[in-house]
Design goal:
Helix content: 10-25%
Order of helices and strands: HEEEEEEEEEE
Number of strands: 10
Largest sheet: 4 strands, mixed
Strand content: 35-45%
CATH topology: Immunoglobulin-like
Shape: elongated
Distance between the termini: 63 Å
Number of helices: 1
Structural class: mainly beta
CATH class: Mainly Beta
CATH architecture: Sandwich
CATH superfamily: Immunoglobulins
Number of domains: 1
Radius of gyration: 21 Å
Length: 141
Amino acid sequence: MMLRWLLVIVALILLTGCGNGMVRVQGEVLLDDKPLPGANILLMPKSGGRPASAKSDASGKFQLTTLRPGDGILPGDYLVSVTAIDEKNLRYEPNGRAEGGFAEQHRRLAPERYGDIKTSGLTATISATDPRLSLRLVSTP
């Protein structure tokens, strides 16, 4: 009988994880229903606490991190911002002379309003029972 209870306790511990309360969230970020690569995602807890962040890959997929890569995020309600900028270093030669240099060119891939949690209009509720997050951005309001 004691062995049976011990097995039940071990099974419960394995099912609940290490007990830190973090949820490993897999997500995607889309702009006009197309994947948004290289997007920086920030989730700020509405009730205060540590934010979580991620960067989307070439297919718009991401995994949220709070303290260490891949550790997840605490369940709760969040304000969300998304920034996506294409940066290029361009060589320039003033007056056709070779002693020119490099200039950075920045192009926003996502509208500027999404880059601020106050203006993005994006929110998320993170739940241990549904560890997925889909962020859908649009080019025009």
